[in-house]
Amino acid sequence: MKKYIAVLLVTIFFLNTLPAFSVDKSAEIRQSASVSENNIKKKQKRKKDTKVDCKVEYINQKWWDKFNDPILTDYILKTANSNYDIKINELKVLEGKEAVKESFGNELPSINFNGTASREKFSGSIPYAGMFFPSYYTTNMRFPLTVNYEVDIWGKNRSNTKKIEKELEALKYDEKSAFISLTTLTASTYFNILSLDKQIEYQKELVALRKEILDLTKINYEYGLASSTDVTVADKSYTESLSDMETLKNNQGKLLNQLSVLTGESSENSSTLERGSIDSIELLKDLPESIPSEIIDKRPDILKAEAQLQAAAFDVKIARRSLLPSINLTGFLGFNAYAFSPLFNWESFIMSLGGGLTQPIFNGGRLLAQLRGKKYRYEQMFNTYQKTILTSIQEINDSLVELKTGTAKNQNNIKRVECETKYYNDMYYKYEKGAVSYLDTLKYKENLLSLKKEEIQSKTDVIIASLSLYKSVGGQL
C-alpha cells in the first residue's frame, strides 16, 4: 500500500510543477492576466515609438529634408512606422533570426529528460497453473537524462547555419529595398497629389473661362458676329474642360486613397489629408550626372542576390557532405529502480555512453540527384546575380536620362509660360485700348492656363525622376 501512495505522491508532484496543469497557481495567473496585458501594450507602444529610430539609416532623413516640406517628412515617418508591408518584412527578418538560432541549436548536443514509471502484472498462460505459478506484479521507475550529439566532423551542420545566416542577410537587404521602395512611393504619391491640386485649381479657372467664352460666342451668334460652327467649337471646348476636370478629380481621389494606405490609415477620410503646395517645392540642383560603380555595388537588390548566391554555395557543400559518413554519440545517466524507496540510491544509478557510424550506401541515387540539383540551383543564383547587376545599371541610366530630359523640358515650359504671359499682358493692354475684343483676350488667357498646367506637370515629372534616381541607387543620394 505504501508503494501505491509513493507513486501517487510522485505523480502529484510532477503535475503541480507543470504550469499548464497547475492548480495552486491558477488564481495567481488569473489575477496577473490584466497586468500582463498592460505590460504587453506598453512594450508594443515602446516598440512602435523606437521603430523609426531603428531605421534611421534606411530613411535617409537628409535626402527628404532637401524638399523643405515637413508634411512630406511626416508622411515618410508614418510610412516607416505604420505601413503593413514594412511590418511584414520586419517580421520576416525576425523569423529569419529565429531560424539561425534553430540551426545553431542543431550543432549542439541535445539533452532530454525521459522519466517513465510503469507497473505490470504477469500471470501463467497454462490452465490450472496458477496454483503452481501464481501471478505477480512488477514495478519499474526510470528517471534518466539522455544526450544525443552528431559529431560534425565534416562541418555539415556548421555549413547549414552559415547558409541560413546568408538567407537572413538576404532578408535584411530585401527589407531595406522594400523600405526604400515604399517610402519613395509615398513621396511620389504625395507630389502627384500636389500636382493635381494645382492642376485642378487651373482647371477650375479654365472651365469658368471657357464657359464665359461659350456665352459670349452665343451672344455674338445672335447678333450675327459668329457662326454656328464657332458656337459648336466653343461648346465642345467647354465640355472637354468639364471632362478633364472629372479625370483630374478621379486621379486625385485614387492617389489620396493610396497615400492613406501607404501610411497605414483608412482611406475613408483620405480627402482631408494634410498637404502643402507644389509651388513651394523647389527642384533639387545637386543631383549627380553620373553614378560611380561603388554606389551601384551597394544597392540592396545586388547585395541580396549576392547573399542568395552564397547561400546556394553552402547548399552545394551540405549536399556533397551528405554523401560522407555521420557519427552520432548517445548516452544517458539517471536512476532506475523497481520501487520508489531505493530510486535515488547510488545502487540505482545508471549511466550509458555509445556511438554509431552511418554511411549511405544505396538510396536510389537520391543524394547524388540532390547534389546535382543544388549545383543547378547555384548556377541559377549566379545568373540571377549577373542579371541583377545589369538591371540595376539600366535602371540608374534610365533615371539619369529621365531626369536630364525632364529638366530640359521643364525649363522649356517655364520659358513658354513666361512668353505666353507677356503675350497675354500685351493683348490685354490692347483690349484696354480697344484694339482687340474681350473674347480674343479670353482665348489668349485660355492658352496661358493650358501652358501653366503643362509646366506644373513637367515640374512634377522632374521631381518624380529625382525620386526614381534616389530609389535606383538604393537611397544613397
Polypeptide structure, described:
This protein has 477 residues and is an alpha+beta fold. The protein has 2 domains: 55-108 and 152-324 and 359-472, Outer membrane efflux proteins (OEP), CATH 1.20.1600; 109-151 and 325-358, Outer membrane efflux proteins (OEP), CATH 2.20.200.10. It contains 12 helices and 5 strands. It has helices at residues 2-17, 26-54, 56-59, 61-65, 70-82, 84-107, 156-222, 228-262, 293-297, 300-321, 366-432, 438-472; strands spanning 110-113, 116-122, 136-151, 326-337, 349-358. Strands 1, 2, 3, 4 and 5 form a 5-stranded antiparallel sheet that branches. α7 packs antiparallel against α8 (228-262). The longest helix is centred in the middle third of the chain and has 67 residues, at 156-222. The chain is elongated and about 130 Å long. The protein starts with a helix and ends in a 5-residue tail after the last helix. 23% of the residues are buried. The model is unreliable at 1-53 (pLDDT under 50).
Short synopsis of the structure:
The chain is of the alpha+beta class and 477 residues long. The chain is 68% helix and 10% strand. The protein has helices at 2-17, 26-54, 56-59, 61-65, 70-82, 84-107, 156-222, 228-262, 293-297, 300-321, 366-432, 438-472, and strands at 110-113, 116-122, 136-151, 326-337, 349-358.
Topology of helices and strands:
Elements: H1 2-17, H2 26-54, H3 56-59, H4 61-65, H5 70-82, H6 84-107, E1 110-113, E2 116-122, E3 136-151, H7 156-222, H8 228-262, H9 293-297, H10 300-321, E4 326-337, E5 349-358, H11 366-432, H12 438-472
Antiparallel strand pairs: 1-3, 2-3, 3-4, 4-5
